[in-house]
Amino acid sequence: MLSKVKASALPSTYTKDMKSHILRTIASFCRNEAVLCIAFICALVSSFFVPAGHNFASSVDLRVIVLLFCLMGATAGLQNAGVLSRSAHCLLSRVSGFRQLSFLLVALPFFAAMVVTNDVALLAFVPFAILTLSITDKKRHLPRIVVLQAVAANIGGMVTPVGNPQNLFIYTTFQTPFLQFFLALLPFALATLFVLAVVCLTFPRENVHVSVSFGSEPIRRSRALLHSALFLLCLAAAVRILPYSVLFPVTLLALLLFDRGIYRKIDYGLLATFLCFFVFSGNMSSIPFVQTTLGSAMNAAPFAVALAASQVISNVPAAVLLSEFTSNWPALLLGVDLGGLGTPIASLASLIAMRLYLHTPETRLSTFLKEFAVANAAFLALLCALYLAFKAFYPM
Question: How far apart are CA 195 and CA 203, in angstroms?
């Protein structure tokens, strides 16, 4: 009799455990992919308000999705090959003062973001900064350094079409000439770099000896050459020399044959987020009320609307949504790029920096947020003032 009771109880216990496991898995996914979940909900809810016969697939920009996939594969490969960490190690070995060290830690993601995107730059160099400051007994400066790294990556990445996802989207959507694109953003990046250098001068004038084992391993040359070649093909596709329909199968085949582990390094959540926001923006642009409201707002003040929207929904979805309502790409571009500063959710790169910082022992969220608020408010005010000064001479 007892054995029958135990046997009948097993399915109930197993079912409860399974339900609990499923709920924990869903909760973990929602925490880790919060932006994707919001994008999916926005796409789903907005689908109920579109006019009959709306073509959902027509809203998806396949070119952007393919370019993002291939770029993420190439940059992840360069990182795995040790190119970024080895370069940083060589630079740090020549540092003798803490002010010099702090500027180098901040400048690394600034320049790296131009090539490997702001997200990858922070994933590579925030852990490097944590390790370096820990072994040099300068960990008390970690919150400010990481915040400055986030600012540097966001603004450094805005200079090139491949520096961040919203740049790639705007560059391909509006078929912007590269030189115009570059010159529109260069003054803001130079101003930011200058101010970052000045801020680093406020750190103590102290001698340091840096001996970091991380990044001391030699570069894996065959992998580095493979992914450098793939990255150059991505650039060729971005500037429309190579069709993306050729780039995609070449990248798939190269990774499959020579470095299939990179498939696990690609951020499929970001690709899915773009798909959802493409659908959402297409839905919203087809609703008459939204067309009228956002259309008039973007006609009146495209920069301000893009900047404000980035603070609430992040700059990548803001770029996708608002692109439907303006042809003024410089104002939209500067609005979403400078809009990456401000709130922690204004840029996914800022959230990456914060998450990496909080995973470090003996760190406090309140300390990080104080530094983050001050730095972002100051840099945003400075760059907005610069934008207004330029606008007075070159209307945007």
Answer: 14
Give the per-residue pLDDT at 5: 47
Residue 314 φ/ψ region, left for φ over 0, alpha for ψ in the -120 to 50 degree band, beta for the rest: left
Do 330 and 181 touch, CB atoms closer than 8 A?
Answer: no
**What's the rounded Cα separation, in Å, for the pair 302 and 33?**
29
pTM of the predicted structure, to 2 decimals: 0.78
Taking alpha carbons only, the member of 318, 353, 332, 308 closest to residue 39 is 318
Say if CB 113 and CB 185 are below 8 A apart: no
In 334-380, which ranges are E strands? none
And the tokens for 350?
Answer: 């800022």
Q: How many CB atoms lie within 10 A of CB 110?
A: 26
267 in Cβ contact with 118 (< 8 Å): no
The two three-digit tokens of residue 269, written as one number? 């959540």
Taking a C-beta distance cutoff of 8 angstroms, is the pair 156, 118 a contact?
A: yes
pLDDT tens-place string over residues 262-320: 999 888 887 888 788 888 878 877 888 878 888 899 999 999 999 999 998 788 888 98
CB 242 within 8 A of CB 60: no
Q: Which two tokens stand for residue 98?
A: 């803490």
CA distance 3 to 385: 78
- The pLDDT tens digits of the residues spanning 162-173 come to 888 899 899 988
